[in-house]
Amino acid sequence: MRTLVEDYDIVVVGAGHAGCEAALAGARLGLNTVMFTVSVDSIALMPCNPNVGGSSKGHLVRELDALGGEMGKNIDKTFIQSKMLNCSKGPAVHSLRAQADKQAYSNEMRKTLENTPNLTIKQGEVTKLLVEDGKITGVKTYSGATYNCKAVVLCTGTYLKARCIYGDVSNYTGPNGLQAANYLTDSLKELGIEMFRFKTGTPARIAGNTIDYSKMEEQFGDERVVPFSFSTNPEDVQIEQKSCWLTYTNEKTHEIIRANLDRSPLYSGMIEGTGPRYCPSIEDKVVRFADKNRHQVFIEPEGLYTNEMYIGGMSSSLPEDVQEEMYHSVPGLEHAKIVKNAYAIEYDCINPRQLYPTLEFKKIKGLFSGGQFNGSSGYEEAAAQGLIAGINAALEVKGQEQLILDRSEAYIGVLIDDLVTKENHEPYRMMTSRAEYRLLLRQDNADLSLELLLPVQKITFARLLSLVSLNLLGALALRMMYRYAYKCGNQETTRGKFLSILLHTFSGIEAGNEKEVQKIKVAIIGAGRVGVSLAEELLNNAEAAYIPRCFIDINREKVGRDIHGIPVWSEDEATFKRLGEFEVQEIIFAIPSMDAKKKKALYDYYKDAGYKLKVYDYPTVYAAGGKRHLREFDIEELLFR
Description:
alpha/beta; 24 helices; 27 strands
């Protein structure tokens, strides 16, 4: 029987958050890419909470954006509420979180995918991997069609042999009632891939017009919204926001749950998969935290044009009648009508220790994977892995050195390293506590932190341009161009001249002329906005391009969180110890607004400690040198107008 045969460079299986980033990376790198999905209407679907970011996850999205990913840009276009979390703590754990318009997010991502050159979207189920002599050669679909390729990226999410469960009801279906992928697991096992069975869940969705909000606490977004993407104009995200609401479970809620635990699939043995420890169902909370008489419940809108409200904090797999009684016991939900029942979902995934840090399978050359298929949880973790898998699949096809992020370079590096080196017998969730270098790896300096990839990976900018388009590099490329703008002269700068200077500047890197980047060489101490302004300019000059550095703000509370691109530490004894730990070689004082006595005392303090010191008493570097300050916006206009 004759069947369809087509040829591509890269095949991406799945169109969730990992699949979207992987497909975009492959296509933007100039390779002919096809992305398969069981339904084109489920592209970038948010089957659980429709939000992006949160603690540590906001860091991942910022890093993703710095590397050219799409998630940050997409949520900036479709959010309905945005909030910076953990603001009462230090800036290392500040994390941006945005509530999305669920349908708008999916539609906007689909629009981006459909308008990306080199990218084809196909609705169909991939059922078999084709491998010859330990190398991937293509895939087969349920219809029998063959798609030959040089690399495959598996981003199947929670669809592999998926089963949705609540009470005694069990359906072999994917999230939101979508078709499951029931055949690919068998192909993977035939190839010797070790599989796990994991579980996650989601709460009920309730009709918003049946909720009594007067019994709840209103939760507002930030007055001044900070965008996720470094390329988004901050003024474009200052919109009217939707409110969320906070209520609590109570002892009556807990009694209903305890009385029906024998009917819960979690405790009856009906569910076989392992669930996420850090996102427990309400049944788990009541059992594991029996001393707590209440738990938070967040009521969050699913979009601007729907009445559905997400009941955060009350995911469940209890029977339908118990869910009705349980939700009605919560203040404000006494008369609420359930639109969609809560359910648990089981699915197949792999043991990620079978992967290299590039996310390529050790057993099969050219086969990569990302997302929940790798045993992780969360949209942001999935998107980050998808981007790295997509980039490395493209580099594999091109026969070029692949990208590996170290734990010291990015949260993404921590995420992937944990997955591929540690035993994970439950869905992995990213947390700030997992990142040893979290004081340096903040969400607001992700673009500058990842610039160190260039010398560390020993990739010249010339070579990088052949691998990654300017669009994919995004804010990262713009930041580097900004740095070297001063060498060009404002009026005569052109794209061609910029690139020639960049190529010349980076040409010596592979020859071994790069500076060592293992230690922080320069610490800049500043105070107030003027000190910060000077520090930013010092950090952004060409001479400092490959010198690891930090910025210490002695009046941190006066600065706020709008300092992007440089680590902000407070000046205290702990900071001094950290400087010793990182073997800082030189300290620059950028504190013109500081009291002279205090400045001298601080100067003597560090001089006595043996540091080499420089002092700047000018308002800005450019005031001292008579140079005009060229803003990032000016450069963007010169390059892209």
